[in-house]
Amino acid sequence: MEPTPEQSPHHAYPDHWEADVVLRDGGTARIRPITTDDAERLVSFYEQVSDESKYYRFFAPYPRLSDRDVHRFTHHDYVDRVGLAVTIGGEFIGTVRYDRIDDTGRPASAPADEAEVAFLVQDAHQGRGVASALLEHIAAVARERGIRRFAAEVLPANNKMIKVFRDGGYTQRRSFEDGSVHLTLDLEPTEKSLAVQRGREQRAEARSVQRLLAPGSVAVIGTGRTPGGVGRTVLRNLLAAGYTGRTYAVNRAFDEGLATLDGVPAHRSLGEIDEQVDLAVIAVPAHRVPEAVADCGEHGVQGLVVLSAGYAERGAEGRELQRELVRQARSYGMRIIGPNAFGIINTAETVRLNASLAPESPARGRIGLFTQSGAIGIALLSGLHRRGAGLSSFISAGNRADVSGNDFLQYSFEDPDTDVALLYLESLGNPRKFTRLARRTAAVKPVVVVKGARHSGTNPPGHAVPVSRIPDTTVSALMRQAGVIRVDTVTEMVDAGLLLAGQPLPAGTRVAILGNSESLGLLTYDACLAEGLRPRPPIDLTTAASPQDFRDALAEALADGTCDAVIVTAIPWVGENGEAETGDGHVLAEALTKAVAGGSAKPVAVVHVEIGGLAEALAAASSTAAPRPRTVTPAAQPRAATTARATTAGTPAPQGAAPAAPAAPEAATTFEATTGPGATTGPEAATSHEAATSQEATPRPGRIPAYPAAERAVRALAEAVKYAQWRRQAAVPGKIPEFLDDTIDEAGAAALIEAQLATAPDPRGRPLSHDEARELLGHYGIDVRPTLPAPDPEAAVAAAARLGYPVALKTTAPHLRHRADLGGVRLDVADEEALRRAYGELTDLLGKPAELLPVVQAMAPRGVDTVVRASIDAAAGAILSFGLAGAPSELLGDTAHRLVPATDRDAAELIRSIRAAPVLFGWRGSAPVDTAALEELLLRLSRLVDDHPEVVSVALEPVVVAPQGLTVLGASVRLAPPPARSDVGPRRLPNY
Questions:
Q1: Is the bond preceding residue 806 a cis peptide, omega within 30 degrees?
Q2: Could you tell me how far CA 506 lies from the centroid of its own chain?
Q3: I need a labelling partner for 761 at 20 to 30 A (CA). Which of 92, 132, 394, 432 fits?
Q4: Which residues, in sequence order, are bridge partners of residue 788?
Q5: Helix 710-730 crosses helix 518-530 at what angle (to 10 degrees)?
Q6: How far, in Å, CA of 912 to CA of 633, rounded?
Q7: What confidence score (pLDDT) does residue 394 get?
Q8: What's the rounded Cα separation, in Å, for the pair 605 and 816?
Q9: How confident is the model over 133-141, as a mean pLDDT?
Q10: Pairwise CA distance, residues 277 & 232, whole Å
Q11: Among 475-489, 938-952, 974-988, whose mean pLDDT is lowest?
C-alpha cells in the first residue's frame, strides 16, 4: 500500500516493514504500516472495539474517534511517529503506535531515543497473540529508527496488556504513578526475548499445521459430477479412510436439485453450507482458483490444500499466479499446502483424514512424512506400506508456496503421535531456520532427510528462495551438526525410518551378529566395518538352527553387556529332500518377537534372504502403530531335535587412529528397556521438558525391521549409532570459552572494518591487503607471521637480514599462491648466498619479479600444514571450515564444516571429522601436534565472523600446527556489506 502525497516526502513508505505472521491459534494475518488511505478502516475497526477496551486505551470513556484523532492516527512520518496495523481480509483487527518523546515526555525527534507506545486489539481477536506479534514488529521498527526504549502507561486492571509487556522477554522497569502502571522496556534483544519469540513462533506454526491436519470439516471444491477426476478421487479417499469429521462436495456446476454426492452433502458454493468449514481441498483449474479462494476466505475456512497445477512449474507467468495465490490466501488468514500438491493424511484414530490422491490410506503408525514431490510421496507411501510401516501424518507440499518443511518440523516437534520425522526436500527456504528447528527437534526425536536437487545449483520450479552456493558435502556436514540424519536415497530414508521408529537407540558401536549362514554373517561383519561399527565375530547357528535356536541366541545377545545392537541373519531352511523351505517366515518372526518381548534395551534388525513372509510377519507381530490388544499364536515346535552348534567367524574390528572429540558427561537420566521410538539405551539425557516427556513411560513391543541385504540393515544401524551419539553430546551443549573475551578487541575490529568499507563504496566490498588483514585478525588474537616484499634480490637480502635466517622465499601471484609443487615456494633458505641463488632460480623458472610478487618470511617450526576458512553463504549463513592444506582438501575434498558460532565441542569435532585426522594425532609414529592451539584458532575465527558479519570471507593458509603451538603463515580477508539475514528480527512468513 503506497502513501499519499500528504505524507512526509522525506521518508518513503517502508514496504520492508510489511509481513505475514502466524498467530497463536495457527491463523495468519498481515502487519503493515498505517497510511492516510486507512481512515475508513480505522473508524470501522474502532467501532468494533468494546467500551472496556477503549477505556483501557484512552483511560476514559471514548465512544468514537474525532476527525482530528483519525488524522493523527493515520498520518505518520515513519521515523518519529509510526503506526502499524494487523489486518485480515483487508480490515484492521489490531493497531500499535509509537511517538518519540524526550526526557520530559514531550514529542521529540532524534537523537531522542525513547518513545511512548500504545496498543489496541479488537475484542474478538484478543487471545490470538495479536499484541505480542505487534510488539515484536514495532520494537524492530523502533530500533531501526534509533529508538532504544519504549514507555507505556497501563491501567492496573488491564492485565492482558501488562502480561504482553511482561512476557516479551525484554529488560523492563515498572512503577506505579498517578493510578497507572508505568512500564519502561529496553528494546535491545536479550537471550530471553529471543527465546520467547522463537517459542511463540514454534507454537503458532505447529498449530497452523495441526489445523490443516485435524480439521473438523472438509469441503472438496471441484468435485466432479461423474466418477473420476481429481476432486472426485479425493472425496472417495476421504470417505474410504473413514474421516471422522463432516465432508462436503462443492462444485458450482452442480444441478440445483442435487442434494448429495457419494453420500455427502453437495453444494454449489461454500455459502450454501450452514456450518463452519475448516479445510478446503481445491481441485479446479488454476484460472478458477482465485474465485474458490475468495469463497473460502469470505466464509471462514482456516486452511487450503491446493491440488491444482499450472503455477510456478509453468514458468514466469505461473510464478506470478502462485505469488498472488499466497497473497490472497494470507489476506484471509489462511495457510496453503501446495499448489500442485498431492495432498495430506492424518491417521489419528480421532481424525482418519486422507485428503490426498493416495488410493489407500496408510496404517496408523509413528512416522511423520513430508515431501515436496508428489511422485516421491507416492513412492514413499508405497514403500512404507509394503514393509508394514504405519504413518502418523503425511504432507506432500508440491510447489511449497507456503507450508514448508520448517513448518512440518515445528509440528513434529510437539506432535505426540510422531516419533520419527522423514523429509524429502528439494530446497531449503530458510537454511538457518531449518538447522535451528532441526537441532531442537532432533534433540527429542530423529529427523531423517533426503535432499533432492543436490548438484543442480538451482532451486526446483516454484521455490523462490535464496540459492545456496556451498557444496552439497558442506550442506550434509551442517545437517549432521544439527543432528539431522542425512541419507542419499528414499530407500535409505525408509530403511533408517523403520529402525528408528521401532527400535531403541544403541548405546555404542558394538554389534552382535547371529544367524544360520556363515557367509551372510561375514557379509554383515564386513558391512559393519565399512560403516565404522565394531562387530563381534558372527555367531553361526548353522543351517540346522530352529526358530527356537534363533530365539535363544537373540535373547542371549540382548542380555550380553558386551554388545549394543544385534543383527540377525537368516536364510531359508533346507528340508530333508534338499529343497529350500521358504514359507516359514511367520514362525521365525514369532520366535524373534518373543525374544524381544520383554522390552529389549538394544536395537534389533533382521537380514533375510528369500524367506517368504518374514518381513510381513515381523510387521504384523510388532508394528510401528500404537499398541492395541491382539492375540499372539503359541510358539511352534522346533524344526530340528538337535541343538544347533555355535561357531564364530571373523576378526575383531580395528581401532581408529584419531581420538574422538570430548564426549558429554553422562547425564543423570537414562531410559532403559524402552523399545518405543526415540528411546535410548545409553546415558541419554533429555535436553528439555519436552525431551523428557516425549519418551515412552513403559516399554512396548517395537517393530523389528527386516532388510533384504546386509548393507542396508547395517547402514540404517550406523545412522542410528551416529544419531544416538549426537543425542548424548547434545544433552550437554558445548560452550564458547570465556578466556576469549579477555583477548579480543571487538570495538577495535569494528572501527577498522568501518573505516575500510568507507573507502570502498562498491557493494561487492573489497579484499584487505596482507598488513590490513594482519591488523584485523590481530584484534581477535590471531597472529599472522609478517612477510616483507622482495621486488629484487637486494630487497630480499635486506628482508632476510631483518627477519633472521632461515627464511622462506615465495611468490604471492594469485596463480602461484600456495603452489610449492610449481616451484613457487623455497623453504629453509639458510644464508644470503642460498637466498640469491633461490631468487634467481625462482625468476628464471616462473617469470619476472613484477609478475611473481615475491616475499620473504621467517621460517615456522615444522608441523602439519592445515587450512582454516570462514565464509558467509547468502542462504546458509556463516560457515567455519577446516582441512589439511594441499591435496587432501583441494583434490579429495576432505574438508569439515560447522555453522558459526562454533562451540568448543564444534571445534574439537571439526578437526577430528576429516578423514586425514590421524595425521594430527601421531600417525605412523610422528609426533602429535598441538590440537588445543588449533581448536582455539577455530574458536577465535568463528567469533570474528560472528561478531562482524561484514567479514564475508577469511582464509588462513597455511596454518602450520607444530607439537607446540601453531603459526599462521598466510591470510586473506574480504569485507563487504553483510547479506540480509532471514533468521533474525520479528517473526514473519517468507515472501514469495
A1: yes
A2: 24
A3: 432
A4: 856
A5: 40
A6: 51
A7: 97
A8: 54
A9: 95
A10: 18
A11: 974-988
